[in-house]
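Narrative progress, year one. The postdoctoral researcher (J.K.) led the effort to move from monomer predictions toward full complexes, under supervision of the PI. The following entry was the first complex the group processed end to end, covering 253 residues in total.
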Amino acid sequence: MGRLEGKTALVTGAASGIGLQTSIRLAEEGARVMMTDINLEKVRQQAEKIGANAAFLKLDITEEEEWISVLDETVKRFDRLDILVNSAGMVLIADVEQITLEDWRKVHAVNLDGTFLGCKHGVRVMKEFGAGSIINLSSVSGMIGGFNLAAYNSSKGAVRMLTKSVALHCARAGYGIRCNSIHPTFIETPMLESMIRDSPDPEKARQTLVRQVPLRRIGKPDDVANMIVYLASDESTFVTGTEMVIDGGVIAQ
Ligand SMILES: NC(=O)c1ccc[n+]([C@@H]2O[C@H](COP(=O)([O-])OP(=O)(O)OC[C@H]3O[C@@H](n4cnc5c(N)ncnc54)[C@H](O)[C@@H]3O)[C@@H](O)[C@H]2O)c1
């Protein structure tokens, strides 16, 4: 407890799954957290459960004007911004032949453009304070392919490389801002649950996922949130531009 005392954070996609559990852990460690999501009602409910260390705002990460006003409001409320977690994202199961151009663009607009806008405006705001940690949610799907994940693979692979460019730019400019990507495998969240539910035989689908993981379980949101706490804290001040894989051994195979 207290590893993030005095720090402030903005989390996207904070109404659900990894973004929600991250907000809970950041607040437990003493950070003040601006929880944002496209779903205002849901993020309001979750922020109220966390209590005094949490506030909330609506943010559609694909809208540049919303980023600008939400970051302004966050700094007004908290006086500074130390941590930005780009967790909002979407998955679409479709191979390269099935996917329409419209869906391809939508997945990239959320997963890639939304993360780019967060990095662009997050750096602009954080550099005024001379320090900061940006944490981008990529995936193991940003490192290894899946036959039916054309747009998801492409967008998450791009987030991985965008992260390195942001990290190197900030290092070169001497801003004191670090930027790292996180690469989880299957994590028990509403995103994964809906993929399992939509499959023809959900129980078989779940067992198939578990069999792919050497540690023989699906990950928990806390497995990811704990890594984010480390990257957000001063324990990781020499860590930038890197890829944190949280996958029970999947890509070691
Ligand atoms: N769950 C997994 O197995 C898994 C594995 C690897 C990577 N990830 C990545 O982790 C991140 C979080 O995933 P999750 O499992 O917690 O998903 P989730 O579906 O539980 O939560 C995603 C949240 O993002 C919000 N969101 C969607 N579009 C948005 C937009 N345009 N603007 C703002 N908010 C928006 C949703 O309202 C939701 O609250 C995603 O980037 C995902 O790709 C998840």
